[in-house]
Amino acid sequence: MGFLPLDSPGRDAQPDYNPSKDFPGTLDSLSSSTLPVTHTDDHGQATPRGISTYRGLAAFELLTHAANQVPDRTAIVQGDQAWTYGQLEQLSQQAAAMLTRKGIQPGDRVGILLPNTAEYIIAVNAIWRCEAVAVAISPLMVSSEIESLLKHTDCHWVICLDVLASTITCPSVKLLLVSIREQLSTVNQLGYLWMRRQSIGAWTLVGDERHHGFWRETHATSDAAPQVSFDPAKTPAYILPTGGTTGAAKSVTLTHENMVANAWQQYMWTGQSFGVETMLAVLPFFHSYGMSAIVMAGTAMAATLVSHHRYNTHKTIELLNQFEPTVFHAVPAMLVAMNEKFRSHPLHSRSLKWVISGGASLDAAVADEFAQHSGALVVEGYGLSEASPVTHVGDLFGPPHYGTIGYPLPETACKIASPTHLDQAVAPGSIGELLIRGPQVMQGYWNDQDSTEKAFHNGWLCTGDLAVQHDDGTYEIVGRKKNLIITSGFNVYPSEVEAVLRSAPGVADAAVIGISDDKRGEVVKAFIVATTKAKWDESAVRSWCHDRLSKHKQPRVYELVTGDLPRNFLGKVIHRSLREDSRHDPGVQHPGKDGSADSPVDIPDSKNEVAS
Protein backbone atom coordinates (compact mmCIF):
# COMPACT_ATOMS: atom_id res chain seq x y z
CA MET A 1 0.00 0.00 0.00
CA GLY A 2 3.02 2.24 -0.40
CA PHE A 3 4.25 2.05 3.18
CA LEU A 4 7.84 1.25 4.11
CA PRO A 5 8.11 -2.40 5.21
CA LEU A 6 8.61 -2.74 8.94
CA ASP A 7 9.55 -5.91 10.76
CA SER A 8 7.95 -5.47 14.16
CA PRO A 9 6.06 -3.13 16.44
CA GLY A 10 9.40 -2.43 18.10
CA ARG A 11 10.07 0.00 15.25
CA ASP A 12 7.21 2.10 16.66
CA ALA A 13 9.36 3.40 19.49
CA GLN A 14 8.15 6.96 18.95
CA PRO A 15 4.71 7.59 20.44
CA ASP A 16 1.86 8.60 18.18
CA TYR A 17 1.44 12.37 17.95
CA ASN A 18 -0.48 13.59 20.99
CA PRO A 19 -1.94 17.09 20.54
CA SER A 20 -2.93 17.52 24.18
CA LYS A 21 0.69 16.98 25.27
CA ASP A 22 2.76 18.05 22.26
CA PHE A 23 0.70 21.00 21.08
CA PRO A 24 -1.09 22.69 23.96
CA GLY A 25 -3.62 25.19 22.76
CA THR A 26 -3.25 28.91 23.32
CA LEU A 27 -5.76 31.71 23.02
CA ASP A 28 -3.59 33.95 20.87
CA SER A 29 -5.53 33.40 17.66
CA LEU A 30 -9.05 32.85 18.95
CA SER A 31 -11.55 34.52 16.66
CA SER A 32 -14.09 36.76 18.31
CA SER A 33 -17.58 35.38 18.78
CA THR A 34 -20.50 37.04 17.10
CA LEU A 35 -22.11 37.12 20.56
CA PRO A 36 -21.14 39.14 23.66
CA VAL A 37 -18.14 37.62 25.43
CA THR A 38 -19.17 38.53 28.96
CA HIS A 39 -22.23 39.40 30.97
CA THR A 40 -22.33 40.99 34.37
CA ASP A 41 -24.40 40.16 37.41
CA ASP A 42 -25.98 42.62 39.85
CA HIS A 43 -22.59 43.17 41.48
CA GLY A 44 -20.80 43.96 38.23
CA GLN A 45 -19.03 40.58 38.14
CA ALA A 46 -18.54 38.93 34.77
CA THR A 47 -20.55 35.73 34.42
CA PRO A 48 -20.25 33.32 31.50
CA ARG A 49 -23.42 32.57 29.56
CA GLY A 50 -24.49 30.47 26.63
CA ILE A 51 -25.83 31.64 23.30
CA SER A 52 -28.98 33.74 23.41
CA THR A 53 -30.22 32.70 19.97
CA TYR A 54 -29.55 30.14 17.27
CA ARG A 55 -30.29 32.50 14.39
CA GLY A 56 -27.39 33.61 12.24
CA LEU A 57 -24.84 31.30 13.84
CA ALA A 58 -22.60 28.82 12.05
CA ALA A 59 -22.20 25.43 13.73
CA PHE A 60 -18.55 26.09 14.66
CA GLU A 61 -19.52 29.27 16.52
CA LEU A 62 -20.82 27.21 19.45
CA LEU A 63 -17.23 26.17 20.13
CA THR A 64 -15.95 29.70 19.56
CA HIS A 65 -18.48 31.09 22.02
CA ALA A 66 -17.63 28.51 24.70
CA ALA A 67 -13.91 29.18 24.21
CA ASN A 68 -14.43 32.92 24.59
CA GLN A 69 -16.62 32.50 27.66
CA VAL A 70 -14.76 29.74 29.52
CA PRO A 71 -11.42 29.17 27.72
CA ASP A 72 -9.79 27.26 30.58
CA ARG A 73 -12.73 24.99 31.34
CA THR A 74 -12.09 21.33 30.53
CA ALA A 75 -14.08 20.48 27.42
CA ILE A 76 -13.40 16.76 27.08
CA VAL A 77 -11.62 14.06 29.06
CA GLN A 78 -10.60 10.75 27.54
CA GLY A 79 -8.33 8.41 29.42
CA ASP A 80 -5.64 10.46 31.13
CA GLN A 81 -5.84 13.22 28.51
CA ALA A 82 -7.90 16.39 28.65
CA TRP A 83 -8.55 19.39 26.41
CA THR A 84 -9.91 22.80 27.37
CA TYR A 85 -12.38 24.74 25.26
CA GLY A 86 -9.59 27.15 24.40
CA GLN A 87 -7.45 24.29 23.11
CA LEU A 88 -10.26 22.77 21.04
CA GLU A 89 -10.93 26.16 19.45
CA GLN A 90 -7.25 26.71 18.64
CA LEU A 91 -6.79 23.20 17.25
CA SER A 92 -9.95 23.33 15.14
CA GLN A 93 -8.76 26.59 13.58
CA GLN A 94 -5.38 25.11 12.77
CA ALA A 95 -6.98 21.93 11.40
CA ALA A 96 -9.22 24.10 9.21
CA ALA A 97 -6.13 25.81 7.83
CA MET A 98 -4.64 22.38 7.13
CA LEU A 99 -7.78 21.23 5.28
CA THR A 100 -7.75 24.40 3.19
CA ARG A 101 -4.11 23.75 2.33
CA LYS A 102 -5.12 20.25 1.21
CA GLY A 103 -7.55 21.82 -1.23
CA ILE A 104 -10.84 21.58 0.64
CA GLN A 105 -13.22 24.21 -0.75
CA PRO A 106 -16.62 25.51 0.42
CA GLY A 107 -19.28 22.91 -0.30
CA ASP A 108 -16.84 19.98 -0.47
CA ARG A 109 -17.75 16.87 1.52
CA VAL A 110 -15.29 15.49 4.08
CA GLY A 111 -16.02 12.20 5.83
CA ILE A 112 -15.40 11.46 9.51
CA LEU A 113 -14.83 7.83 10.50
CA LEU A 114 -13.91 8.11 14.17
CA PRO A 115 -15.06 6.85 17.56
CA ASN A 116 -15.76 9.21 20.47
CA THR A 117 -12.58 11.29 20.65
CA ALA A 118 -11.55 14.93 20.94
CA GLU A 119 -10.43 14.58 17.32
CA TYR A 120 -14.06 14.12 16.27
CA ILE A 121 -15.00 17.49 17.78
CA ILE A 122 -11.91 19.18 16.37
CA ALA A 123 -12.38 17.63 12.92
CA VAL A 124 -16.06 18.46 12.51
CA ASN A 125 -15.52 22.07 13.59
CA ALA A 126 -12.54 22.36 11.24
CA ILE A 127 -14.65 21.11 8.34
CA TRP A 128 -17.36 23.65 9.16
CA ARG A 129 -14.78 26.46 9.34
CA CYS A 130 -13.94 25.67 5.71
CA GLU A 131 -17.65 25.92 4.81
CA ALA A 132 -17.35 22.26 3.85
CA VAL A 133 -19.88 19.56 4.73
CA ALA A 134 -19.08 16.79 7.21
CA VAL A 135 -20.25 13.28 6.32
CA ALA A 136 -20.83 10.99 9.31
CA ILE A 137 -19.50 7.48 8.70
CA SER A 138 -20.35 4.79 11.22
CA PRO A 139 -17.51 2.49 12.33
CA LEU A 140 -20.17 -0.24 12.17
CA MET A 141 -20.46 0.12 8.38
CA VAL A 142 -18.86 -2.43 6.08
CA SER A 143 -16.71 -1.46 3.11
CA SER A 144 -19.50 -1.68 0.53
CA GLU A 145 -21.76 0.60 2.60
CA ILE A 146 -18.99 3.15 3.05
CA GLU A 147 -18.14 3.05 -0.65
CA SER A 148 -21.78 3.65 -1.55
CA LEU A 149 -22.03 6.59 0.87
CA LEU A 150 -18.81 8.21 -0.37
CA LYS A 151 -19.89 7.91 -3.99
CA HIS A 152 -23.38 9.22 -3.23
CA THR A 153 -21.99 12.30 -1.50
CA ASP A 154 -19.00 12.72 -3.85
CA CYS A 155 -16.65 12.66 -0.86
CA HIS A 156 -12.89 12.51 -1.57
CA TRP A 157 -11.35 13.03 1.89
CA VAL A 158 -12.00 11.10 5.10
CA ILE A 159 -10.63 11.81 8.58
CA CYS A 160 -10.29 8.24 9.74
CA LEU A 161 -9.18 6.08 12.66
CA ASP A 162 -6.04 4.33 11.49
CA VAL A 163 -7.25 0.82 12.35
CA LEU A 164 -10.40 1.38 10.25
CA ALA A 165 -8.58 2.59 7.15
CA SER A 166 -8.96 -0.75 5.37
CA THR A 167 -12.75 -0.31 5.31
CA ILE A 168 -12.33 2.57 2.85
CA THR A 169 -11.55 0.82 -0.39
CA CYS A 170 -12.02 3.66 -2.91
CA PRO A 171 -8.47 4.36 -4.16
CA SER A 172 -9.37 7.97 -5.04
CA VAL A 173 -10.37 8.79 -1.45
CA LYS A 174 -7.54 10.26 0.61
CA LEU A 175 -7.26 9.62 4.34
CA LEU A 176 -6.18 11.75 7.29
CA LEU A 177 -5.35 9.18 9.96
CA VAL A 178 -5.98 9.49 13.70
CA SER A 179 -4.71 7.10 16.39
CA ILE A 180 -6.13 6.41 19.85
CA ARG A 181 -3.32 4.03 20.83
CA GLU A 182 -2.03 6.18 23.68
CA GLN A 183 -5.45 6.18 25.34
CA LEU A 184 -5.21 2.40 25.83
CA SER A 185 -3.47 0.26 28.41
CA THR A 186 0.00 -1.08 27.59
CA VAL A 187 -1.37 -4.55 26.84
CA ASN A 188 -4.11 -3.20 24.58
CA GLN A 189 -1.63 -0.95 22.79
CA LEU A 190 0.14 -4.03 21.42
CA GLY A 191 -3.14 -5.33 20.03
CA TYR A 192 -3.89 -1.91 18.58
CA LEU A 193 -0.53 -1.86 16.78
CA TRP A 194 -1.29 -5.24 15.26
CA MET A 195 -4.71 -3.99 14.07
CA ARG A 196 -3.01 -0.95 12.54
CA ARG A 197 -0.52 -3.20 10.72
CA GLN A 198 -3.43 -5.23 9.33
CA SER A 199 -5.33 -2.09 8.30
CA ILE A 200 -2.74 0.21 6.73
CA GLY A 201 0.21 -2.12 6.21
CA ALA A 202 2.52 -0.41 8.69
CA TRP A 203 3.23 -0.35 12.39
CA THR A 204 3.65 3.44 12.41
CA LEU A 205 1.65 6.35 11.00
CA VAL A 206 4.04 6.76 8.08
CA GLY A 207 2.31 8.60 5.24
CA ASP A 208 2.21 8.15 1.50
CA GLU A 209 0.30 9.79 -1.35
CA ARG A 210 -3.05 8.51 -0.06
CA HIS A 211 -2.48 8.33 3.71
CA HIS A 212 -1.66 11.37 5.85
CA GLY A 213 -1.31 11.81 9.60
CA PHE A 214 -4.05 14.18 10.78
CA TRP A 215 -2.02 15.67 13.62
CA ARG A 216 1.31 15.81 11.81
CA GLU A 217 -0.32 17.65 8.92
CA THR A 218 -2.16 19.99 11.30
CA HIS A 219 0.97 20.74 13.34
CA ALA A 220 2.94 21.45 10.17
CA THR A 221 0.44 24.10 9.05
CA SER A 222 1.15 27.69 10.04
CA ASP A 223 -1.54 29.30 7.88
CA ALA A 224 -4.46 31.16 9.42
CA ALA A 225 -7.90 29.58 9.48
CA PRO A 226 -9.98 30.45 6.41
CA GLN A 227 -12.42 33.35 6.65
CA VAL A 228 -15.87 32.32 5.48
CA SER A 229 -19.23 34.04 5.24
CA PHE A 230 -22.45 32.20 4.47
CA ASP A 231 -26.13 31.93 5.38
CA PRO A 232 -26.40 29.29 8.16
CA ALA A 233 -30.06 28.68 7.34
CA LYS A 234 -29.26 27.56 3.80
CA THR A 235 -25.75 26.11 4.00
CA PRO A 236 -25.38 22.34 4.55
CA ALA A 237 -23.23 21.34 7.53
CA TYR A 238 -23.73 17.65 8.19
CA ILE A 239 -24.80 14.58 6.22
CA LEU A 240 -26.16 11.62 8.18
CA PRO A 241 -26.86 8.27 6.52
CA THR A 242 -30.17 6.88 7.72
CA GLY A 243 -32.85 4.39 6.80
CA GLY A 244 -31.14 1.28 8.16
CA THR A 245 -34.29 0.14 9.98
CA THR A 246 -36.82 1.43 7.47
CA GLY A 247 -35.63 0.37 4.04
CA ALA A 248 -33.49 2.08 1.40
CA ALA A 249 -30.61 4.12 2.77
CA LYS A 250 -30.88 7.90 2.52
CA SER A 251 -28.62 10.75 3.59
CA VAL A 252 -30.17 13.38 5.85
CA THR A 253 -28.76 16.85 5.15
CA LEU A 254 -28.72 19.27 8.08
CA THR A 255 -27.90 22.96 7.77
CA HIS A 256 -25.81 24.94 10.22
CA GLU A 257 -29.01 26.49 11.57
CA ASN A 258 -30.62 23.06 12.02
CA MET A 259 -27.75 21.90 14.20
CA VAL A 260 -27.31 25.10 16.20
CA ALA A 261 -31.08 25.37 16.74
CA ASN A 262 -31.29 21.87 18.19
CA ALA A 263 -28.33 22.57 20.49
CA TRP A 264 -29.94 25.83 21.61
CA GLN A 265 -33.28 24.10 22.22
CA GLN A 266 -31.64 21.52 24.49
CA TYR A 267 -29.60 24.20 26.27
CA MET A 268 -32.80 26.16 26.95
CA TRP A 269 -34.50 22.97 28.21
CA THR A 270 -31.86 22.67 30.94
CA GLY A 271 -32.76 26.11 32.26
CA GLN A 272 -29.78 27.63 30.41
CA SER A 273 -27.23 25.68 32.40
CA PHE A 274 -23.79 26.86 31.24
CA GLY A 275 -20.28 26.03 32.35
CA VAL A 276 -21.32 23.83 35.29
CA GLU A 277 -22.38 20.40 33.99
CA THR A 278 -20.26 17.29 33.48
CA MET A 279 -21.69 15.02 30.80
CA LEU A 280 -21.05 11.30 30.38
CA ALA A 281 -20.26 10.96 26.67
CA VAL A 282 -20.57 7.30 25.69
CA LEU A 283 -23.27 7.61 23.02
CA PRO A 284 -21.56 7.38 19.62
CA PHE A 285 -20.76 10.78 18.16
CA PHE A 286 -21.36 9.47 14.64
CA HIS A 287 -25.04 8.92 15.50
CA SER A 288 -27.45 11.85 15.35
CA TYR A 289 -28.38 11.47 19.04
CA GLY A 290 -24.78 11.56 20.27
CA MET A 291 -23.82 14.32 17.86
CA SER A 292 -26.65 16.63 18.88
CA ALA A 293 -27.14 15.88 22.58
CA ILE A 294 -23.46 15.53 23.48
CA VAL A 295 -21.21 17.25 20.93
CA MET A 296 -23.49 20.15 19.99
CA ALA A 297 -25.65 20.66 23.09
CA GLY A 298 -22.70 19.81 25.32
CA THR A 299 -20.72 22.61 23.69
CA ALA A 300 -23.70 24.98 23.89
CA MET A 301 -23.77 24.25 27.65
CA ALA A 302 -19.96 24.44 27.96
CA ALA A 303 -20.18 21.07 29.67
CA THR A 304 -17.19 18.87 30.43
CA LEU A 305 -17.53 15.70 28.37
CA VAL A 306 -16.25 12.50 29.99
CA SER A 307 -15.69 10.33 26.96
CA HIS A 308 -14.84 6.75 26.13
CA HIS A 309 -14.26 5.58 22.58
CA ARG A 310 -17.12 3.06 22.77
CA TYR A 311 -19.75 2.03 25.27
CA ASN A 312 -18.77 -0.60 27.81
CA THR A 313 -20.90 -1.19 30.90
CA HIS A 314 -18.01 -1.75 33.30
CA LYS A 315 -16.08 1.26 31.96
CA THR A 316 -19.15 3.50 32.03
CA ILE A 317 -19.80 2.71 35.70
CA GLU A 318 -16.11 3.32 36.42
CA LEU A 319 -16.36 6.76 34.78
CA LEU A 320 -19.51 7.51 36.79
CA ASN A 321 -17.71 6.86 40.04
CA GLN A 322 -14.46 8.56 39.02
CA PHE A 323 -15.68 11.79 37.40
CA GLU A 324 -19.15 12.13 38.97
CA PRO A 325 -20.99 13.46 35.90
CA THR A 326 -24.29 15.28 36.29
CA VAL A 327 -25.84 14.47 32.89
CA PHE A 328 -26.08 11.11 31.14
CA HIS A 329 -27.58 10.66 27.68
CA ALA A 330 -28.30 6.97 27.15
CA VAL A 331 -30.33 4.37 25.29
CA PRO A 332 -32.50 1.85 27.17
CA ALA A 333 -30.11 -1.06 26.55
CA MET A 334 -27.41 0.81 28.50
CA LEU A 335 -29.69 1.36 31.48
CA VAL A 336 -30.78 -2.29 31.49
CA ALA A 337 -27.16 -3.48 31.51
CA MET A 338 -26.16 -1.02 34.23
CA ASN A 339 -29.14 -1.94 36.41
CA GLU A 340 -27.98 -5.56 36.34
CA LYS A 341 -24.54 -4.51 37.61
CA PHE A 342 -25.94 -2.21 40.29
CA ARG A 343 -27.97 -5.03 41.86
CA SER A 344 -24.77 -6.70 43.02
CA HIS A 345 -22.38 -3.73 42.97
CA PRO A 346 -24.19 -0.53 44.05
CA LEU A 347 -23.22 2.75 42.43
CA HIS A 348 -21.09 4.84 44.80
CA SER A 349 -21.62 8.20 43.12
CA ARG A 350 -24.86 10.14 43.52
CA SER A 351 -23.78 12.96 41.20
CA LEU A 352 -26.22 12.32 38.36
CA LYS A 353 -29.17 14.67 38.26
CA TRP A 354 -30.48 14.11 34.71
CA VAL A 355 -30.58 10.86 32.74
CA ILE A 356 -32.15 11.32 29.31
CA SER A 357 -32.98 8.14 27.41
CA GLY A 358 -33.71 8.00 23.70
CA GLY A 359 -33.34 5.87 20.61
CA ALA A 360 -35.96 3.31 21.66
CA SER A 361 -38.88 2.98 24.04
CA LEU A 362 -37.87 3.01 27.71
CA ASP A 363 -39.64 0.58 30.02
CA ALA A 364 -40.99 2.31 33.13
CA ALA A 365 -39.60 -0.39 35.41
CA VAL A 366 -36.11 0.07 33.93
CA ALA A 367 -36.31 3.85 34.37
CA ASP A 368 -37.54 3.62 37.94
CA GLU A 369 -34.87 1.09 38.92
CA PHE A 370 -32.09 3.24 37.45
CA ALA A 371 -33.46 6.25 39.31
CA GLN A 372 -33.36 4.26 42.55
CA HIS A 373 -29.77 3.16 41.96
CA SER A 374 -28.46 6.58 40.91
CA GLY A 375 -30.69 9.15 42.58
CA ALA A 376 -31.15 10.82 39.17
CA LEU A 377 -34.28 12.05 37.44
CA VAL A 378 -34.77 9.69 34.50
CA VAL A 379 -36.74 11.05 31.56
CA GLU A 380 -37.37 9.91 28.03
CA GLY A 381 -36.81 11.93 24.88
CA TYR A 382 -37.70 11.50 21.25
CA GLY A 383 -36.33 12.49 17.91
CA LEU A 384 -35.32 11.38 14.45
CA SER A 385 -32.32 12.15 12.28
CA GLU A 386 -34.47 14.30 10.02
CA ALA A 387 -35.02 16.66 12.99
CA SER A 388 -31.36 16.97 14.03
CA PRO A 389 -32.71 14.79 15.92
CA VAL A 390 -34.32 15.91 19.22
CA THR A 391 -37.93 17.17 19.23
CA HIS A 392 -39.31 16.10 22.63
CA VAL A 393 -37.83 15.65 26.13
CA GLY A 394 -39.33 14.96 29.53
CA ASP A 395 -39.54 17.74 32.10
CA LEU A 396 -36.15 18.11 33.82
CA PHE A 397 -37.59 20.04 36.75
CA GLY A 398 -40.71 18.09 37.63
CA PRO A 399 -41.79 14.55 38.49
CA PRO A 400 -41.09 11.89 35.85
CA HIS A 401 -43.83 10.80 33.45
CA TYR A 402 -42.65 7.29 32.65
CA GLY A 403 -43.90 5.91 29.36
CA THR A 404 -44.04 9.32 27.68
CA ILE A 405 -41.53 11.30 25.62
CA GLY A 406 -42.36 14.51 27.45
CA TYR A 407 -43.04 17.80 25.72
CA PRO A 408 -41.95 19.53 22.49
CA LEU A 409 -38.73 21.55 22.74
CA PRO A 410 -38.89 25.37 22.36
CA GLU A 411 -40.00 26.55 18.91
CA THR A 412 -41.06 23.01 17.99
CA ALA A 413 -44.60 22.62 16.67
CA CYS A 414 -46.24 19.23 16.43
CA LYS A 415 -49.64 17.80 15.64
CA ILE A 416 -51.22 14.37 15.51
CA ALA A 417 -52.96 13.63 12.23
CA SER A 418 -54.97 10.80 10.77
CA PRO A 419 -52.46 8.29 9.36
CA THR A 420 -54.52 8.01 6.16
CA HIS A 421 -55.57 11.68 5.86
CA LEU A 422 -52.70 13.85 7.08
CA ASP A 423 -54.70 17.06 6.66
CA GLN A 424 -57.12 15.87 9.34
CA ALA A 425 -56.21 16.19 13.01
CA VAL A 426 -57.39 13.35 15.24
CA ALA A 427 -59.63 13.91 18.24
CA PRO A 428 -57.89 14.76 21.55
CA GLY A 429 -56.54 11.62 23.19
CA SER A 430 -56.66 9.65 19.94
CA ILE A 431 -53.79 7.97 18.14
CA GLY A 432 -52.42 9.34 14.89
CA GLU A 433 -49.21 10.09 13.04
CA LEU A 434 -46.89 12.61 14.70
CA LEU A 435 -45.98 15.54 12.44
CA ILE A 436 -43.18 17.99 13.32
CA ARG A 437 -42.21 21.49 12.30
CA GLY A 438 -39.35 23.58 13.71
CA PRO A 439 -35.92 25.14 13.05
CA GLN A 440 -34.21 21.77 13.64
CA VAL A 441 -36.04 20.02 10.78
CA MET A 442 -33.73 18.99 7.95
CA GLN A 443 -33.15 20.67 4.62
CA GLY A 444 -33.83 17.36 2.89
CA TYR A 445 -32.08 14.18 1.74
CA TRP A 446 -28.83 14.60 -0.15
CA ASN A 447 -29.45 14.46 -3.92
CA ASP A 448 -32.81 12.77 -3.39
CA GLN A 449 -35.64 15.16 -4.16
CA ASP A 450 -38.22 12.39 -4.47
CA SER A 451 -37.58 11.06 -0.95
CA THR A 452 -37.47 14.62 0.38
CA GLU A 453 -40.91 15.41 -1.02
CA LYS A 454 -42.34 12.20 0.43
CA ALA A 455 -40.96 13.06 3.89
CA PHE A 456 -43.04 16.25 4.13
CA HIS A 457 -46.73 17.11 3.97
CA ASN A 458 -47.58 20.78 3.54
CA GLY A 459 -44.39 21.83 5.33
CA TRP A 460 -44.71 19.29 8.16
CA LEU A 461 -42.15 16.51 8.63
CA CYS A 462 -43.92 13.14 8.65
CA THR A 463 -42.24 11.10 11.37
CA GLY A 464 -43.89 7.78 10.53
CA ASP A 465 -44.49 7.31 14.26
CA LEU A 466 -47.90 6.85 15.82
CA ALA A 467 -48.45 8.94 18.93
CA VAL A 468 -51.06 10.19 21.38
CA GLN A 469 -51.11 13.38 23.45
CA HIS A 470 -52.32 13.03 27.03
CA ASP A 471 -54.35 15.53 29.02
CA ASP A 472 -51.22 16.80 30.82
CA GLY A 473 -49.63 17.74 27.48
CA THR A 474 -47.12 14.89 27.36
CA TYR A 475 -46.78 12.79 24.24
CA GLU A 476 -46.48 9.02 24.00
CA ILE A 477 -45.13 7.05 21.06
CA VAL A 478 -47.32 4.04 20.35
CA GLY A 479 -45.36 2.52 17.48
CA ARG A 480 -44.24 2.86 13.89
CA LYS A 481 -46.91 3.57 11.29
CA LYS A 482 -45.54 0.85 9.03
CA ASN A 483 -45.53 -1.62 11.92
CA LEU A 484 -49.23 -1.08 12.63
CA ILE A 485 -51.19 -4.32 12.43
CA ILE A 486 -54.77 -4.14 11.12
CA THR A 487 -56.84 -7.20 11.94
CA SER A 488 -60.55 -7.35 11.01
CA GLY A 489 -60.47 -3.56 10.68
CA PHE A 490 -59.07 -2.94 14.17
CA ASN A 491 -55.69 -1.37 14.86
CA VAL A 492 -53.14 -3.31 16.89
CA TYR A 493 -50.07 -1.42 18.12
CA PRO A 494 -47.04 -3.72 18.50
CA SER A 495 -45.64 -1.85 21.51
CA GLU A 496 -48.71 -2.69 23.61
CA VAL A 497 -48.63 -6.40 22.79
CA GLU A 498 -44.85 -6.58 23.20
CA ALA A 499 -45.03 -5.00 26.65
CA VAL A 500 -47.53 -7.64 27.78
CA LEU A 501 -45.46 -10.47 26.32
CA ARG A 502 -42.24 -9.26 27.94
CA SER A 503 -43.94 -9.25 31.32
CA ALA A 504 -45.06 -12.88 30.95
CA PRO A 505 -43.30 -15.58 33.00
CA GLY A 506 -40.57 -17.34 31.05
CA VAL A 507 -40.27 -14.60 28.40
CA ALA A 508 -36.94 -12.76 28.16
CA ASP A 509 -37.78 -10.72 25.06
CA ALA A 510 -40.54 -10.46 22.48
CA ALA A 511 -41.59 -8.71 19.29
CA VAL A 512 -44.71 -8.92 17.14
CA ILE A 513 -45.58 -8.34 13.50
CA GLY A 514 -48.66 -8.75 11.34
CA ILE A 515 -48.89 -11.70 8.97
CA SER A 516 -51.42 -12.26 6.20
CA ASP A 517 -54.69 -13.97 7.04
CA ASP A 518 -57.45 -14.77 4.53
CA LYS A 519 -60.31 -13.86 6.88
CA ARG A 520 -58.91 -10.99 8.94
CA GLY A 521 -56.39 -9.42 6.58
CA GLU A 522 -53.70 -9.76 9.23
CA VAL A 523 -53.21 -11.52 12.54
CA VAL A 524 -50.58 -11.01 15.21
CA LYS A 525 -47.47 -13.18 15.17
CA ALA A 526 -45.14 -13.18 18.18
CA PHE A 527 -41.42 -13.88 18.20
CA ILE A 528 -40.35 -15.06 21.64
CA VAL A 529 -36.95 -15.29 23.31
CA ALA A 530 -37.49 -17.57 26.29
CA THR A 531 -35.54 -17.28 29.53
CA THR A 532 -34.70 -20.96 29.00
CA LYS A 533 -36.18 -23.40 26.53
CA ALA A 534 -37.07 -25.70 29.39
CA LYS A 535 -39.31 -23.00 30.88
CA TRP A 536 -41.11 -22.10 27.65
CA ASP A 537 -44.81 -22.79 28.06
CA GLU A 538 -46.81 -21.45 25.13
CA SER A 539 -50.17 -22.24 26.69
CA ALA A 540 -49.23 -20.26 29.81
CA VAL A 541 -48.23 -17.25 27.70
CA ARG A 542 -51.47 -17.49 25.72
CA SER A 543 -53.39 -17.46 28.98
CA TRP A 544 -51.35 -14.47 30.17
CA CYS A 545 -52.25 -12.52 27.03
CA HIS A 546 -55.90 -13.61 27.21
CA ASP A 547 -56.23 -11.95 30.61
CA ARG A 548 -54.54 -8.72 29.52
CA LEU A 549 -55.36 -8.09 25.87
CA SER A 550 -58.49 -7.89 23.75
CA LYS A 551 -58.87 -10.95 21.57
CA HIS A 552 -57.86 -9.22 18.33
CA LYS A 553 -54.58 -8.12 19.97
CA GLN A 554 -53.62 -11.58 21.19
CA PRO A 555 -50.91 -13.32 19.14
CA ARG A 556 -52.28 -16.23 17.11
CA VAL A 557 -48.91 -17.48 15.91
CA TYR A 558 -45.85 -17.97 18.11
CA GLU A 559 -42.28 -18.57 17.02
CA LEU A 560 -39.54 -19.39 19.51
CA VAL A 561 -36.34 -17.54 18.59
CA THR A 562 -32.90 -19.00 19.17
CA GLY A 563 -30.52 -16.26 20.22
CA ASP A 564 -31.54 -12.60 20.17
CA LEU A 565 -34.12 -10.60 18.27
CA PRO A 566 -32.69 -8.45 15.45
CA ARG A 567 -31.95 -5.02 16.89
CA ASN A 568 -29.97 -2.00 15.79
CA PHE A 569 -27.16 -0.69 17.99
CA LEU A 570 -29.61 1.55 19.85
CA GLY A 571 -31.54 -1.52 20.95
CA LYS A 572 -34.54 -0.94 18.69
CA VAL A 573 -36.17 -4.09 17.26
CA ILE A 574 -35.88 -4.28 13.46
CA HIS A 575 -39.43 -5.37 12.65
CA ARG A 576 -38.69 -5.25 8.93
CA SER A 577 -36.21 -8.09 9.34
CA LEU A 578 -38.81 -10.17 11.17
CA ARG A 579 -41.35 -9.55 8.40
CA GLU A 580 -38.85 -10.61 5.75
CA ASP A 581 -38.03 -13.80 7.64
CA SER A 582 -41.71 -14.52 8.15
CA ARG A 583 -42.44 -14.37 4.42
CA HIS A 584 -40.10 -17.32 3.94
CA ASP A 585 -41.31 -19.19 7.03
CA PRO A 586 -44.72 -17.92 8.18
CA GLY A 587 -44.85 -20.31 11.10
CA VAL A 588 -47.69 -22.51 12.24
CA GLN A 589 -51.03 -21.00 13.13
CA HIS A 590 -52.20 -22.32 16.44
CA PRO A 591 -55.82 -22.21 17.58
CA GLY A 592 -56.87 -19.59 20.09
CA LYS A 593 -57.59 -20.40 23.69
CA ASP A 594 -61.20 -21.21 22.86
CA GLY A 595 -60.06 -23.83 20.35
CA SER A 596 -61.10 -21.89 17.27
CA ALA A 597 -58.45 -20.33 15.07
CA ASP A 598 -60.97 -18.13 13.28
CA SER A 599 -63.32 -17.06 16.04
CA PRO A 600 -64.57 -13.46 15.71
CA VAL A 601 -62.53 -10.73 17.35
CA ASP A 602 -63.75 -8.67 20.29
CA ILE A 603 -64.88 -5.10 19.71
CA PRO A 604 -62.25 -3.01 21.52
CA ASP A 605 -63.04 -0.34 24.04
CA SER A 606 -61.33 3.04 23.83
CA LYS A 607 -59.22 2.42 26.93
CA ASN A 608 -57.54 -0.61 25.40
CA GLU A 609 -56.88 1.19 22.13
CA VAL A 610 -54.18 3.36 23.73
CA ALA A 611 -50.93 1.53 24.37
CA SER A 612 -49.79 1.63 27.97
Automatic annotation (TrEMBL):
GO function terms (MF aspect): long-chain fatty acid-CoA ligase activity
Top-level taxon of origin: Bacteria
InterPro entries noted in UniProt: AMP-bd_C, AMP-bd_C_sf, AMP-binding_CS, AMP-dep_synth/lig_dom, ANL_N_sf, ATP-dep_AMP-bd_enzyme
Record flagged with keyword Ligase: yes
Residue ranges with Polar residues bias: 28-37
Enzyme Commission numbers on file: 6.2.1.3
Segments of skewed composition (Basic and acidic residues): 580-596
Domain AMP-dependent synthetase/ligase: 64-446
Xref: Pfam families: AMP-binding, AMP-binding_C
Alphabetically ordered keywords of this record: Ligase
Annotated AMP-binding enzyme C-terminal domain residues: 496-572
Sequence segments annotated as region (Disordered): 1-48, 580-612
This protein's name: Long-chain-fatty-acid--CoA ligase
Originating species: Rubripirellula amarantea
